[in-house]
Amino acid sequence: MTNDSVKKTLLVAFLLCVVCALLVAGSTVLLRPKQKENKELDITKNLLSVTGLIQSNKISKKISKDEVKEAFKKITVKILDLSTTQLSDKPEVAIKKQDPKLVTIYFVKENNTISQIVLPIQGKGLWSTLYGFIALAPDTVTVKGLNFYQHGETPGLGGEIDNPAWKALWPGKKVLDPDKDFAPVLTVVRGKVGEGTEKAENKIDGLSGATITSRGVQDLVNYWLGKDGFGKFLAKFRSGEVRL
Amino acid sequence: MSVKKVFLDPLINNNPITLQILGICSALAVTTTLETVMVMVLAVTLVTAFSSFFVSIIRHSIPSSIRIIVQMTIISSFVIIIDQILRAYLYDVSKSLSVYVGLIITNCIVMGRAEGYAMKNPPLISFVDGLGNGLGYGLILFLVGIFRELLGSGKLFGFTILKTTFNGGRYLPNGLMLLSPSAFLLIGGIIWIIRTIKPEQIEKD
C-alpha cells in the first residue's frame, strides 16, 4: 500500500502517538520522585534564606543537603488554622486535603525564644502567581526578609523580584502600622525610596519596567498580613497568647 | 557529503543562525549568562540530533499529508523528555531556563533540519547533521553570551571578572546588555563580520 492511503496514514499516526506517549509518560513518571525532592529542597532553601539561617548567596552555590538539614533544626513547623488561629502539629495528611484554611507556618527558635515568624505568601503578578515567604520579627511589624521561591514573571523585568539587591531592601521595613491598629501599610513606590521620604520604613523601591508585578507584591503582602490573612493570628501573637 | 563536512559546515559556512537565520528567538532570551547558554545549547543539540535521527528512520513511511505533524510530534516528545530530565537532575538551571526549554519545540532550527535534511538522508548522517547544527547554534550563542554576561553583569560563568559598582567595584554594568535587543544587535554584528570575511554568504538580490 502506498504511503498516502487513508489506512496507512491512520496506522502511522496511531503507532507514532502510542510510542511517543509511552516515552513521554514513562520519563515523566520515572523522574517525578526526584523532581518532587528537588522542589521541596528548593522551597526549604528559600525558607532558610529568608530567615538568614543560610546566606542567600550560598543558595546558588551547591549547598549540601546536610547543611540544609542542620540549619532546619532551628525551625519549628506548625499548622495554622486561619479561621480559628489555632496552631497544631497535624500531620501532612491534613494539609493534603487542600483545606485553604490550613496553612503551614514556621518559627525560628533560638535559645528557647521565638526570634522570627515565617509566613507563606502568594498572589498574582503579571503572568503568574508569585509564591514566597515573609519573615517577621517577634514584634510582627518589622520584616526580617522576603523572597519568592516560585514565579513565572518576565526575566529582567518582573523577574527582578529575585534580584538580591532588591531583596536586601526588605530587612528593617515595617509592614504594619501600630498607630492604625496594626493595619498593613506597605507601599511599593515608583523608583527608589529616597533618604528623607516620609514613612520610608513602610515603603519599598519599585521594579523598573515591572509595574504590575510590583503592585502584585504590594497587594499580596498587604492581603496576607491583613485581616483576611494572618492578621488575626499576628494579633494573637502580639498579645502573648501563642505558645509553641 | 562526507561526515566531516556535514558536521563542520553548520559552524560557519551554513550556520543556522547567521546564514539560515533560524532560532533567533531563543538566542535573544537565554544568552544573559553563559551557564544557561551551555545548558540550552546542549538541550537543542540533543533534540535536533535525535529528532533528525528518528525522523530519518521512518522517512520512507511517513504519509505526506501528515508529514509536518509527525515531525512535530517526534520533536515535542524529545523536548518534553529533556525538560523532565533537566528538572530532575539540574533543577536550579532548569529554573533559570524556565519556559525556554519547552520553547525549543518552536525553534525553527529543529524543524528546519528535520524537514530539510532528515527527510532526504539516512539516519546516521542526519544525526550528525543535527549535532553540527546544534553546535553551530551553540557557537553563536556562546559568543553573544560572553558579551552579554561580561558587559551586562561583569561576570563569566558566574565568576566576577569586572566588579560592578553595585558590589563596590568600578564597572558600571551596561543595562542594555541584560535586555533582549542587545542580543539582536550582537547577532547582527556577527552576521556582518562573517559576511565581510566570506562574501559568498551574502544573499544575491
Structural class of chain B: mainly alpha
Shape of chain A: globular
What average pLDDT do the residues of chain A reach?
86
The strands making up the biggest β-sheet of chain B line up spatially as 1-2
| DSSP strand content of chain B | under 5%
| Biggest interchain interface, per-side counts | A-B, 26 and 32 residues
Order of strands, main sheet of chain A, comes to 2-1-3-4-5-6
User: What is the succession of H and E elements of chain B?
Assistant: HHHHHHHEEH
Oligomer: heterodimer
- Beta-strand portion of chain A reads 15-25%
Helix content of chain A: 25-40%
Class from secondary-structure proportions of chain A? alpha+beta
Give the beta-strand count of chain B: 2
Shape estimate of chain B: globular
Question: Describe it for me?
Answer:
The complex is a heterodimer of chains A (244) and B (205). With 244 residues, chain A is an alpha+beta fold. Chain A is built from seven helices and ten strands. Chain A has helices at residues 6-51, 56-60, 65-72, 92-96, 164-167, 211-224, 231-238; strands spanning 75-81, 86-88, 102-110, 113-124, 129-136, 143-150, 176-177, 183-184, 187-189, 203-205. Chain A has a six-stranded antiparallel sheet with strand order 2-1-3-4-5-6. A two-stranded antiparallel sheet of chain A has the order 7-8. The longest helix of chain A has 46 residues, at 6-51. Chain A is globular, with a radius of gyration of 23 Å. The model of chain A has no long low-confidence stretch (mean pLDDT 86). Chain B has 205 residues and is mainly alpha-helical. Helices cover 61% and strands 2% of the residues of chain B. Chain B has a two-stranded antiparallel sheet. The two termini of chain B are 28 Å apart. Chain A binds chain B through residues 3-5, 8-9, 12-13, 16-17, 20, 23-24, 27-28, 31, 34-35, 38-39, 41-42, 60, 152, 155-156, 165, and chain B through 29, 32, 58, 60-66, 69-70, 73-74, 76-77, 80-81, 84-85, 87-89, 91-92, 95, 98-99, 158, 166, 178-179.
